Amino acid sequence: MENFEDLIAGYRRFKRDQFAASRARYRALAEQGQSPSVMIIGCCDSRVDPAAIFDAGPGELFVVRNVANLVPPYEPDHGHHGTSAAIEFALTGLKVRHVVVLGHAACGGVKALMNGMGATDNDPSMIARWMSIARPVYEGLKKVGMDMSSDSTCEAMEKFSVIHSLSNLRGFPFVAEAEAAGRVTLHGAWFGIESGRLELLGDGVFTPVES
User: Fold this and answer.
1) Which of 1, 102, 118, 138 would be 42's cystine partner, CB 3.0–4.6 Å?
2) Of 98, 103, 120, 121, nearest to 179 (Cα)?
3) DSSP secondary structure string, 2-51?
């Protein structure tokens, strides 16, 4: 889409085709509210749309997107915590049964961290502050001598960042309680933009889903 008029044209197609074909579904969602079973914590990268990847319809996924699909540490202070608020609502309000942290290939936020943005406290920018959430991943890979300019390191950091975010997620008391009680299951996933390959985390290893 090149301009705002393209957005409006897209809306008209949606209203004529998709909305018209799913009118009963939208009416039910309006009258009964949402009750998704799955929450996706994804990246705001325009190339990685959870609804498209999982072929999900309206009301099926509760999605929060941010730079590099990061989960911040649990911080019960007076700050503004958009991602944390969405997690709280999903677990305590919607009572989702699955939470998926979805990483992806060629992540710009991860590349920024590889280039040092967020690696120290010297950069006051908002992106640097946000990416500092994944600083332990950066420091760990750098410590073992990984080349911070290689594509393989980028992919490793993308995947280890998913693992790190799952660890942070378990730091939320209501998440830990729900997981211990068997009310919610946490998942890690990684999507290859060019290949279309989805990999799921299991026993510390990402394994491709058979298509």
Assistant:
1) 102
2) 98
3) -SHHHHHHHHHHHIIIIIHHTHHHHHHHHHH----SEEEEEE--TT--HH
